[in-house]
Amino acid sequence: MDSNLRNLKDFLTLYNKVTELCFNRCVDNLSQRELFDQEKTCVDRCVTKFARFNQSMMKSYVDVQTKINAKRMEEAEQAAKLIAEQQQKEVVTSVAPAVSL
Description:
The protein is mainly alpha-helical and 101 residues long. The protein has helices spanning 3-26, 37-100.
């Protein structure tokens, strides 16, 4: 699946969940077409709270993911260094008998 399409799908899924959550929490009466002031305030607070929570979670995720990526890069560099050292030793040991002849 195209990453842009996936991002859109994820956004719409999140949007629908927030809409449903805040509607169920805040709307008590369906007798009028418009929301009551109390319901509007509740929906505004609900959406704001969710947005702040989501922003905080994404910040934490980015921080943790950055540390994980740095650790993986360090491990990959160490592994590459070990492989290079092993290959160099193999070359030295295979060349050494030929030189002594």
